[in-house]
Write a structure and sequence with these properties.
Blueprint: E1 8-19, E2 25-26, E3 30-31, E4 35-44, E5 53-61, E6 73-74, E7 80-81, H1 84-87, E8 89-90, E9 97-102, E10 108-116, E11 122-133
Antiparallel strand pairs: 1-11, 2-10, 3-10, 4-9, 4-11, 5-6, 5-8, 5-10, 7-9
Length: about 140
Amino acid sequence: MRDLMNDIHPKVAIAPVVATDNTALVGLDIDRTGYDSLTFVLGMGTLADVDATFAVLVEHADDNGSGAAGSYAAVADEELVGTEALAGFTFAADNACRKIGYIGGKKWCRITVTPSGNTGNAPIAALAILGHPSVKPTANPPA
């Protein structure tokens, strides 16, 4: 058996929320300092609306947006592992997970989930899994 726990550092990217309309769920700023890899993992509960779709966008920046507005930009496809289309989902993804990786060189990343056609309850959460740490083992509990 191999240990993964001491090689990863999970952070909340989108705190568990129930989306009831088409408002975008903009994730928290994820600082990649000290880690060479990042994967976003999305988890859904029972999605009530029978025609809703959920688009995923990964963005990155040199700073966390506390400075000039618009510091985040969409990540180019070649800097993603997987695609935003595969990370997206529809109403049929009850109790499912999706994932997308980032291999770009920016310090900060975030994920956004944008519902479309959603008028029901859509429980969604996302974690940022930071990996390949410069210092091991990683803290437990994660800070």
